[in-house]
Amino acid sequence: MNIRQSFKMAFKSIFSNKVRSFLTMLGIIIGVAAVVIMVSIVQGQNKEMKEYYESMGTNKISVYVYKFNGEDVTQDLYDYCLGLKNLVLGVTPSSSFGGPVKYMTKSTDQNQQYGMPPVYLGSDLYSMCNNYKLQEGRDLCWLDVKNYNQVVVIGAKLKEFLFDYKDPIGEKIQIGGQKFEVIGVYEAKGSEQNWFMDYMAVVPYSMSRILTKTSMMGEFTVKAKSAEATTEAITRLTGFLSGRISDKDGYFNVYTDNTWMQQNDEQNKMMSLVLGGIAGISLLVGGIGIMNIMLVTVRERTREIGIRKAIGGARKSILIQFLIEAGVICGTGGIFGIILGYLGTLVAGKLILNIVLLPSAPMTIGAFAFSVILGISFGMYPAVKASGLQPVVALRAE
Question: Which UniProt keywords apply (predicted)?
Answer without folding.
Answer: Cell membrane, Membrane, Transmembrane, Transmembrane helix
